[in-house]
Structures are given as structure tokens and as C-alpha cells.
């Protein structure tokens, strides 16, 4: 699989690709895609990395699992393909975005436009079997994506990390908060959002405020 990832990440993550766990993971994923319907399409597994090269990373948004229904997952966390109905979490993300930046609710749920501006839309697990949420968890993906987060923390400066929900917040241990800024919030899922843990976090405007302070270009959310 690693041959499909952008060259800028290969040098950073080369050590991971040669470890036993990744070779086992590679075989597992290969067999799953051969024998079952899995998402995202195999050529989109590393989309988050391919649309956002290592040198371009300014913001990191961490999700957990790809969507597991047909036509949804495209390799970017929380993102769906154009024309696909927005899942509940994405609806709440766009509601907060609209309120925070006083802009219209986005009609297109494909977040490739964010990724191309330097937002790494990273799921902790990069693949899933159709209609079986979490089916590819604890197979090695989390070891790999933890290494991605730590590599960004170690080798880059002044990156904004968005940790939404309890699962993502656990990743804070991988991030050097002296070099980077971490913004915490509840998860945008209806369960969390309806309890008051999501709306009003203003992470989109705050991210741009921090990027300006770092002397970096802002994100056109």
C-alpha cells in the first residue's frame, strides 16, 4: 500500500513501512479488499496524505473510522463524495462553520478543498468493511496514524491540532504543546452536540487566528 502515498510522507514514515506490524496490516487490508466490499476505494486509502503533502500541513483534524456505507468514504475524515447526503456529524460541523464564520451552509460535503489548503483530515483507522463500523480497528492502523501524528509534532512547527471528542483527545499525548496549538471540543455527533459540547467552539475562526499569528496563510473553510 505504501507505494500509493505521496512522496513527501515516504521519507517521514519510511521506518513505519518496514516494521512487522505494517507488513501484517498490509496483508490484512489486501485480503479484506479482495474478499469483501471495503471503504474507501483502495486507491483512496491515503487520500488525506496525497491531497495534503507533509510540508503543507498547517492543521490536523483527527477522526476515528471511515464511513461504512456505499459512496460515502473518500479517504478524508468527516468528508463524503460530492452529491452524497451529509452524515449527521458533518451536518453539525457545517452548522458550526456557518455560525462561526457567518457564511452559508456548504452544499458540498467533499472536504478535498480543505485538504488542498493544508488540513490533514486523518482518520485513526483508514479502512473499514462495508456496513461494519470499526471492523478494521486494532489491526495496526492506529499504530501507523499515531506515528503520523507524532512525526508531525516532532518534525514541524506551529501546527494547529483539532481534537474533537474523547477518542481524538487521547491523541494529545503525542503532541508537543510547546511547539503546537491544540484546540479541544466535544464531538460533532448529534449525541455530543445536543448536550452542548460542540456548538460554539469557534474552532474554524480560532484556527485561522492562530495561523495568522504564526505567519501562515489561513484556511478558506
From TrEMBL:
What's the main place this protein lives?
cytoplasm
| Localisation | Cytoplasm
Gene Ontology molecular function: any one: uracil DNA N-glycosylase activity
- InterPro entries for the chain: UDG_fam1, Ura-DNA_Glyclase_AS, Uracil-DNA_glycosylase-like, Uracil-DNA_glycosylase-like_sf
- Is this entry keyworded Iron-sulfur? no
GO biological process terms on file: base-excision repair, AP site formation via deaminated base removal
- Domain of life the protein comes from: Bacteria
Query: What is this enzyme's catalytic activity, as reactions?
Result: Hydrolyzes single-stranded DNA or mismatched double-stranded DNA and polynucleotides, releasing free uracil
Residues in Uracil-DNA glycosylase-like domain copies: 50-211
**What residues form the catalytic site here?**
65 (proton acceptor)
PANTHER family according to UniProt: URACIL-DNA GLYCOSYLASE
Q: What does this protein do?
A: Excises uracil residues from the DNA which can arise as a result of misincorporation of dUMP residues by DNA polymerase or due to deamination of cytosine.
The protein depicted here goes by the name: Uracil-DNA glycosylase
The organism encoding this protein is: Algibacter mikhailovii
Q: Which gene encodes it?
A: ung2
Amino acid at each position: 500500500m505504501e507505494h500509493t502515498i505521496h512522496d513527501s510522507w515516504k521519507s517521514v514514515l519510511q521506518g513505519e513501512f518496514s516494521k512487522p506490524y505494517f507488513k501484517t496490516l498490509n496483508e490484512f487490508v489486501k485480503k479484506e479488499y479482495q474478499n469483501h466490499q471495503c471503504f474507501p476505494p483502495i486507491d483512496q486509502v491515503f487520500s488525506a496524505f496525497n491531497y495534503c503533502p507533509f510540508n503543507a500541513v498547517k492543521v490536523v483534524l483527527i477522526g476515528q473510522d471511515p464511513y461504512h456505507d456505499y459512496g460515502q468514504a473518500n479517504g478524508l475524515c468527516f468528508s463524503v463524495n460530492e452529491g452524497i447526503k451529509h452524515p449527521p456529524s458533518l451536518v453539525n460541523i457545517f452548522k458550526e462553520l456557518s455560525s462561526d464564520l457567518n457564511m452559508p451552509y456548504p452544499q458540498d460535503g467533499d472536504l478535498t478543498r480543505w485538504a488542498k489548503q493544508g488540513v490533514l483530515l486523518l482518520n485513526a483507522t483508514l479502512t473499514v468493511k462495508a456496513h461494519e463500523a470499526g471492523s478494521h480497528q486494532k489491526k495496526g492502523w492506529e499504530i501507523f496514524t499515531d506515528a503520523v501524528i507524532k512525526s508531525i509534532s516532532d518534525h514541524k512547527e506551529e501546527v494547529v491540532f483539532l481534537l474533537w471528542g474523547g477518542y481524538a483527545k487521547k491523541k494529545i499525548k503525542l503532541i508537543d504543546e510547546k511547539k503546537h496549538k491544540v484546540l479541544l471540543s466535544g464531538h460533532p455527533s448529534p449525541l455530543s452536540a445536543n448536550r452542548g459540547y460542540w456548538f460554539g467552539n469557534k474552532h474554524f475562526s480560532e484556527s485561522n487566528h492562530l495561523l495568522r499569528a504564526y505567519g501562515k496563510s489561513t484556511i478558506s473553510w
